[in-house]
Write a structure and sequence with these properties.
The chain is α/β, with parallel strands linked by helices. It is built from 11 helices and 6 strands. The strands form 2 sheets. Strands 2-3-1-4 form a 4-stranded mixed beta sheet. Strands 5-6 form a two-stranded parallel sheet. Strand 5, helix 7 and strand 6 form a beta-alpha-beta unit. Helix 1 crosses helix 11. The longest helix has 21 residues.
Length: 243
């Protein structure tokens, strides 16, 4: 409920518009990212289909109408944890499978389920960086603390991912309670919050209903401009890190 999947897709499209080659991975059995990308999950192949058949991921990657590439998800992904229990280095399966694709894309964005279970652990082990979308609510702030504990444990073991960044989503600047939580998050996380925040914008849901991107449906909307700004910030930070 923090616009996680929406952020994955819109950030990917924004980066694509900045001349970056982007791959999205739907790593959630609910397949919401696949749905938003206009792909039928019932006929699409997923990460589980690839590894269970010992095939390369690039055989299942497809280009979306929005200009970014996608490895879809489907209901068969629910069998992945059981399959993984029978293999060595189960928590590294995504990391190992992504190796051949890393040089083919500027960014690989992984959408995870809204939980800290096996799928999310596999994604964190594969990731170089983590972006945590969060609303300015008390429960969302508590969720950030929980996932930080998991990330810190992984960092001690493997040295990555980097310290997570936060992106404030669904923000209503006129809401007193949200403004108070915003202040608390800013004081606590300071430079780790990626500017700007993503505002509440009805254009997002409207565009999804019409199976369009917000960039095409409402190119001058507040949310469109915010996602483009976030993409530029991430691209700038990435370039700095590799100078």
């Amino acid at each position: 409920g923090v616009a996680k999947t929406t952020t994955c897709l819109n950030l990917a499209i924004a980066l694509g518009r900045l001349n970056q080659r982007i791959l999205c991975i739907d790593f959630d059995p609910q397949a919401n990212l696949t749905l938003l990308a206009g792909i039928n999950s019932s006929t699409a192949n997923s990460f589980y289909d690839a590894i269970s058949k010992n095939n390369l991921l690039n055989q299942y990657v497809t280009k979306t109408p929005f200009g970014v590439w996608l490895l879809p998800s489907n209901q068969r992904m629910n069998a992945f944890p059981k399959y993984a229990l029978q293999t060595k280095n189960a928590e590294q399966l995504l990391h190992l499978a992504l190796a051949p694709l890393r040089t083919q894309f500027n960014y690989i964005i992984i959408d995870t389920p809204p939980s800290l279970k096996f799928f999310t652990l596999n994604a964190l082990m594969a990731a170089d960086c983590v972006l945590i979308p969060t609303q300015c609510t008390y429960l969302s702030m508590h969720g950030v603390e929980q996932i930080e504990l998991i990330i810190n444990a992984i960092r001690k073991r493997s040295g990555k991912p980097k310290e997570p960044k936060l992106l404030l989503t669904l923000y209503d600047a006129n809401n007193t309670a949200q403004k108070a939580i915003h202040t608390m998050l800013t004081q606590r996380y300071d430079q780790r919050i990626i500017p700007p925040y993503i505002p509440v914008d009805n254009s997002i849901q409207e565009s999804q209903i019409l199976t369009k991107t917000i960039f095409n449906y409402a190119p001058n909307s507040a949310a469109t401009n915010a996602y483009l700004s976030v993409a530029k910030f991430i691209l700038n930070e990435y370039c700095k890190a590799h100078e």
